Every structure is written in C-alpha cells, then in structure tokens.
Amino acid sequence: MPEQNPIGPVDSSRVPRFAGFATFARLPRIDQVERADVAVVGVPFDAGVSYRPGARFGPSALREASRLLRPYHPELDVSPFAETQVVDAGDIALNPFNIGEAIETLQSEAEALTADGTRLVTVGGDHTIALPLLRAAAKKHGPVALLHFDAHLDTWDTYFGEPYTHGTPFRRASEEGILDTEALSHVGTRGPLYGKRDLEEDRRLGFGIVTSGDVMRRGVAETVDALRQRIGGRPLYISVDIDVLDPAHAPGTGTPEAGGMTSRELLEILRGLRDCNLVGADVVELAPAYDHAEITAIAASHVAYDLVSLLSLGKSA
Ligand SMILES: N=C(N)NCCCC(=O)O
Ligand SMILES: [Zn+2]
Ligand SMILES: [Zn+2]
C-alpha cells in the first residue's frame, strides 16, 4: 500500500471515457507514480504463431476496449485502483525478427519491472511470451503453480524444429524446472490434437486437464474447488489464452477452436480464486484483425481487470 492515496483512473464524470490516451482502464502511466503495486504491461509480439498472425496488435486493442471499465468490482468487493497503485507500464519493445532475443529481452524487462515487488498483468502478444514471464516469476518466487486457460495444451515440443513458439512455452518451462509439478492445470482444453501422444506427454510433465466439456458438466463451483485444492498456498501464475473462450465469445484470435467456454464461466472461475497467492498473470492471443465489434477485446479487457483485482486483493489482505 503506498503512503499516499493511489493515483486512480481519469475521472469519467469530467473527461468522457472515449477521450484521451488509452492507457489500461485510463490509469496513470508508470512514470507518473513513485511506485506501483500492480502494472499492466503490453507485449506486442507475434513472431511465434503457427496460424493466423496479428496478436502484436492485441495490447492496443485491449487498452481501447478497457476504457469502459469502472473502478469497483462488485463480485470481488474490491476497488482495485483505490486500494493499490495500479499503472499502465506501456509496451515492452521486442525484436520481431528474432524470437530468441525477444525472449531474453522480455525476461530481463519483466525482472526489472518486478524488482521492487510490483506484480504484472501482461497483455499479449502470442503465447510464446509466457515462457520468459514464467522465468521472471520463478526467479523471484521459486517454481510456480500454473493455471493455464487455453483451448490448447501448448506443451508441444517443436514446430518446424523450432523450440520457442506459441505452442511450446509450457514444455520449455517444464524442462527448465520453473514450474511446480504438483500444481499444473490446463483449463478449457478442447479440439483435435496431433495424436494421443500429445496427451500422454502432457500428463508426464505433470499437468492435469479440465476440458471445456468438464467445466460445462461439473459447473463452475466444482471446477474451482478442484483447482484450489491443487494450487493450495503455492505462488500461482495464471496464463489466459483468450482462445479458451468459444469463438462466439472470442473470434479475434489466431487459432480458434469450436466448443469453448463462455466468458461468464471464465470470469466466474477466476473470481473463485480470490484466496490464492497470485504472483503474476497474462492474457494473450488477442488478434484484433479477426475481431468483430470488439467482442474479443472487451472479453480480454475484463479478464485483465479481474486479474488486476485478484492481485489487488492479495496485496491489501
Ligand atoms: N494459441 C496457442 N497458444 N497455441 C496454439 C497452437 C496450435 C497449433 O499450432 O496446432
Ligand atoms: Zn490457444
Ligand atoms: Zn496458448
């Protein structure tokens, strides 16, 4: 908690929401505050995609869609921007032609941003970026529990012989020992795979899977109970690939799969995790060129708002 009252968003009763620069939720920039508890940071990078490109434009689309967010979260009963200093840390500039260099740069930038205890909600960008973000989190907290919302496993080994792609971050993270193998969960998994071996290898890495169908059949409450039991008090990182949502709820993404979760289910599950020890999170794979009426960008901005709120709750507890 800062000494002074946090600097909040621009007052929407004085300056209309649709006016002015689009920082996340119209919050101050990081250079306008002394210290931040939570920073939303953009990573406009999509050199790791296997299908449709365009997630490099995700951060700016999410910021635009976040103009309508309001300061009080009724379901979590928290005013995140009043209880903690939340800022927009801008975008991290990465080399779009060199994935290896981009990963190294992102890791060191994330380490620098979190050095004095600021926690990050990172807005992507494709899922490649989760690896350096997990490295930075694990350097600070030790191996982290991972809650991974995604249509895909993202534990594949290589694509065209390349180890660093948006389909492989969690395989690499697992090999590097930065994940707590007792507490790894995919949620929302669905769709065709390359073979049964994908599932066997994923299980061998220690992941548990709650499919999109499981969420529908069991319901949110049972899903949350099972996830919380697995996570316990461990430092937790949440990675949300927006394609976890059904294409009806998130058309603006690069590798859409039918039969996904609703945005209501996703937000309800996140809200069930209020007692967890969240240390960082990301929202990735928003590709606005395939979006319609900002459907996906709005969903992603609300997911980011919920993640900020969870971090804020953890901080003020
Ligand atoms: N959207 C993410 N992160 N991964 C999808 C990889 C699916 C594929 O290339 O088969
Ligand atoms: Zn995915
Ligand atoms: Zn993914």
Automatic annotation (TrEMBL):
UniProt keywords, alphabetically: Hydrolase, Manganese, Metal-binding
Cofactor: Mn(2+)
Note accompanying the cofactor annotation: Binds 2 manganese ions per subunit.
PROSITE patterns membership: ARGINASE_1, ARGINASE_2
Pfam families: Arginase
Residues the entry annotates as binding Mn(2+): H127, D150, H152, D154, D241, D243
Homology family: Belongs to the arginase family. Agmatinase subfamily.
Name under which the protein is recorded: Guanidinobutyrase
Gene: gbh
